[in-house]
Amino acid sequence: MIKTIQARAEILGRSSLFKNSSWGIIAQASQTLFITLFFIIVARIYSTEIFAAYIIANILYQLVSAFSTMGLSPWFIRELSGPVHDNRFVNSFFRLQLWLGVAFYLVSIGIGFTLYDDKLTRVITMLFGVNIIFDNIINVVKCLNIAYNDQKKTFLILSIESFLKFLAAAALFIYPFSIEILAFVLIVIRFVSLNLFLKMGASVEVSMNTIRQSRINYDTIKSVIFSNWPFIIIGGISIINWRLANIVISKTLGRAEVANYEIAYKVFSIAQIIPIIISTTVFPKIVKLYSSNELSSFKSFYQRVHIYYMFFGLVAFTFAYSFSNSLIPWLFGTDYLDSVQLTQQMFFTILVFPTALLQANVLVAMRAERYDMILNVVALIVNALICIIGIHYIRSVFVVNVAIFSSFLLFRILQDVYLIKRGVSTAAEAFSFYTASAILVTSYVWLTSFVNIYLLFVTFWLFVIIIIVKTKKIHFR
């Protein structure tokens, strides 16, 4: 048995998917550590009211930033994965993203001043909004590195940035300063990252001078945006689906609930990182397999990765459900005990998120982004209706978690319908995914009432791994 596991581990180590993604996950682990420490320090140093204002301003920035790229990243990556483009194409896209960043920075200020009256939230919103301009330019470099399979540069720079943010937060222990000063320091750090991306992070030669010298006219902007408008909606909705909750909570329940929910989301976002990182390797490969009409290889690769994603979702759920009760009070303090239950509830969504992300990539690779857009719109409507109507009758953040899970579950089911019709998947495979997930999760939650949580987690996953190895459900080639 041990030899079998060792043999399969050696095969996994030679897998191109593993080799291309493992360094990204390792680099992301250090980045996540520093960002998490930064978040913990900020939560502990500042009062709940100030921390909540910081969260709200950060959320507004993220919401607007999601639309500021006009959702063109998948299109840009797909174009770069095709015929070779010269630097004029790349620099023109840089210039487009720069102007879009400026425009949406102004939009973020308008939204912040419209929704919130308090001075602190408005000031931090204005400061954080500057990052939208920087993010748009950095995002182009990230796309280049994904397309040219050179993500190491991206993660190296992001690791440096996360460490600098941690140092900024750690300085609060030596000399406590206002949240406004901290927001300004974060802008400076982001500007440093921007310059690092331009000088050493781009896979092609680019600089602010080449961006300024490039030209892009109105007709080009209109053509690019209008011909790829589904990506705008897809990119924006993916963020709104998560961050809408914070806005609703801040306007209906209060600042303490905003802070508790954000802590739960921060823990969840750590779990999101691994499938997102792996997708930066998976997506270009899916595009190439489908574009080259290697349909059998395309389906085989999708099915193999689908099992990996499902497996990760189950591991992440059982870990969070088991250990949130001890980890969150230890990390964030006893002021945020309500975050424990919210985290456990939120992690039901991780059961469908990774595979839904994979299937979204498959749809875009198949040039079915309009259908993917429709699914995103439907999911957002379901999320918003359950969230807004439910919280009117049940004044609890529990409603928000139900809304998010329901929207993702529906999104995933509708994806299955399309992929089954196109022959990429089968009804039996979809049914097996839901049935296996339901049985494993229900069994695990039930057993937590009778078995020591540490013993249960280790025993449960040893049992699952043995079954997987014996039945050869995961292929390592």
Characterization of the model:
- This protein has helices at residues 2-14, 16-45, 48-68, 73-80, 87-115, 119-147, 151-174, 179-201, 208-213, 218-227, 229-252, 255-291, 295-332, 338-346, 353-365, 369-393, 398-421, 427-447, 453-471.
- It is 84% helix and 0% strand.
- α4 (73-80) packs parallel to α6, α7 runs antiparallel to α8 and α13 (295-332) packs antiparallel against α19 (453-471).
- The chain has 477 residues and is mainly alpha-helical.
- The longest helix has 38 residues, at 295-332.
- The two termini are 19 Å apart.
- The protein folds into two domains: 41-227, no CATH class; 233-477, no CATH class.
Keywords for this structure?
single chain, 477 residues, mainly alpha, 19 helices, 84% helix, 0% strand, globular, disordered N terminus
Short summary of the structure?
This protein is an all-alpha fold and 477 residues long. The protein has helices spanning 2-14, 16-45, 48-68, 73-80, 87-115, 119-147, 151-174, 179-201, 208-213, 218-227, 229-252, 255-291, 295-332, 338-346, 353-365, 369-393, 398-421, 427-447, 453-471.
* Oligomeric state of shown chains: single chain
Would you list the SSEs in sequence order as H and E? HHHHHHHHHHHHHHHHHHH
The rounded Rg comes to 22 Å
Estimated structural class? mainly alpha
Query: Could you tell me the strand content as a percent range?
Result: under 5%
Round the mean pLDDT to the nearest integer and report it.
Answer: 81
How many strands, what sense, and barrel or not for the largest sheet?
Answer: none
Number of helices: 19
Low-pLDDT runs of 5+ residues are 1-14
Strand tally is: 0
List the domain count as a whole number.
Answer: 2
- The best one-word shape is globular
> How far apart lie the N and C ends?
19 Å
Query: Percent of residues in helical segments?
Result: over 70%
